[in-house]
Amino acid sequence: MRREDSLSANARVTALTPPDILARKGGDPLVCLTAYTTPLARLVDRHCDIILVGDSVGMVLHGLPSTLGVSLDMMIMHGQAVRRGVERALLVVDMPFGSYEETPEQAFRNAARIMAETGCAAVKLEGGETMEKTIRFLTRHGIPVMAHIGLTPQAVNSFGGYKVQGRGDDAFHILRDAEAVADAGAFSIVLEKVPATLADRITETVVIPTIGIGASPACDGQILVVDDMLGMFDAFRPKFVKRFAELGEAADAAIAAYAQEVRSRKFPSDAHVFTDGRKGKTE
Ligand code: KIV
Predict the structure, then answer these.
(1) What is the number of the ligand 1 atom nearest to the C-alpha of 124?
(2) Is there a cis peptide before residue 268, judged by omega within 30 degrees of 0?
(3) Model-level pTM?
(4) CB crowding 44-60: b at 16 or more within 10 Å, else e
(5) Do residues 110 and 72 make contact, with C-beta atoms less than 8 angstroms apart?
(6) pLDDT in tens, 47-106
(7) What is the pLDDT of residues 91-123, one digit of tens each?
(8) Which of 96, 187, 205, 259 has its CA 20 to 30 A from that of 71?
(9) 48, 53, 55: which to mutate for ligand 1, most atoms within 8 A of CB?
(10) Phi, psi angle pair for 29, to nearest 5°
(11) Catalytic hit among 102, 192, 249, 261
(12) Average pLDDT over residues 115-133
């Protein structure tokens, strides 16, 4: 661990905590976004209650075809970068595929490493009933856990694609997952891509905040991948993504203008080059 990270982690006295988030059940909606870098974390921190360093970083920043290839070291590196940009929000870091499923002890070892090396206050892991024992073990050993049920992207191969989960009779299983993770001590649950009626029922039933992504406006909070809502990620666009900006298009236009000015020798102009200083000018 870099000393800088360890010291700054200890200095975080004003950030929101997992109990603060738990206390928001049924209150004002929790505003949550992902971030993977320091500059974006600074922007997100001004407006959000929770910043998630999601394993979506693998697809969004590293061009991976799914989240399955994301490693613990990648999550830690991005967690440290985000940590440097966060002052107020609760920082949560995703546990990547393969880092927690074997045993509660494996999950504890890797979660403890994530927390110690990034300064985050909680981890997120995917799975409902099957992760109940692990969530109980982690929370009893000082590791706050955000659960994630419904469409859990690390199980994309088992689902046969990024499909809506919990339709028809499957609703019962997802409800049971929600009750299991709440009972095990998770302080919040992400509900991804489930029918709105099911999300509403879960939100009414469990005592911990639900955070929807493709779920329902009645959830206790909402989360999106920040690059999706800024229009910077184009590989695919789920129905639940609302674009609040088109930064990808703006970046494309800016890069095209730069290329055109370089080719026509319009850039750099006098404003962007240096004199030899003989006229007493200093730059
Ligand atoms: O990895 C991620 O970004 C997530 C959110 C979309 C909830 O899990």
Answers:
(1) 8
(2) yes
(3) 0.94
(4) bbeebbbbbbbbbbbbb
(5) yes
(6) 999 999 999 999 999 999 999 999 999 999 999 999 999 999 999 999 999 999 999 999
(7) 999 999 999 999 999 999 999 999 999 999 999
(8) 187
(9) 55
(10) -55, 140
(11) 192
(12) 98
| pLDDT at residue 243 in the model | 96
- What are the phi and psi torsion angles at 222 (to 5°)? -130, 150
Neighbours of 253 (CB within 10 A): 11
The rounded Cα 135 to chain-centroid distance in angstroms is 19
Residue 192 annotated in active site:
yes
Q: Which two tokens stand for residue 43?
A: 């922007």
- Ligand 1 pocket at CB < 6 A: 34, 52, 54-56, 94, 148, 190, 213, 223, 225
pLDDT range class, residue 234, cuts 50, 70, 90: confident
Residue 16 has pLDDT above 80, yes or no: yes
pLDDT computed for residue 164 by the predictor: 96
pLDDT of residue 12: 53
What is the Cα–Cα distance from 111 to 170, expressed in whole angstroms? Answer: 30
Q: Which residue did the predictor score with more confidence, 1 or 172?
A: 172
